[in-house]
Specification:
The chain is an alpha+beta fold. The chain contains three helices and ten strands; from the N terminus they run βββββαβββαββα.
Amino acid sequence: MTFHVADFRRSGPQPAAVVAPGRHFIIRVRGETIGLPVECVKTVFYVDNLTPMPLAPREVAGLTNLRGRIVTVLHLDRCLWRDEVSVNSNRLAVGIERDGEEYALLVDDTEDVVVMNGSDLIACPAYIDPRLTEILAGCYRLDEGFLSVLDIEALLRRVLALNEAPTRDKRKTTSNSNNRGARL
């Protein structure tokens, strides 16, 4: 006689779900404190050489070489719609990875890792820019304000969509001009 684990289901009351603590790497961008999920942070480094990408969206600073790998560098302040006049000459970057691709976020400063109770994560307050709430996973209340937690997946989806938009528009324009030529 054989038994399958699936045949033995628990009956009775289930234990309450345990919410894992949120571990966040703290960065500063234009005076704002932002948390990055620790799992996504691979390295912190200074960008020495930056190769510009002329047709990329303004959020893309360019490309750099990090230990033999090509990394796309993003202006995090521009991704967060913080377009102050000052220029980030620091070139401090936080390296992240998504689907085998490496990216770097230009930041002003880095701090420690903080551990927050996962159940304390709240939705973004109503006064935060709606564009920004699309790329935030939520916020934690702090004594001195809020810690916004960046949703890396949403941020990169947004930047990649910006990068593809001009290509789509160019293809439509090219195909429309080809169709007009065929009618003449």
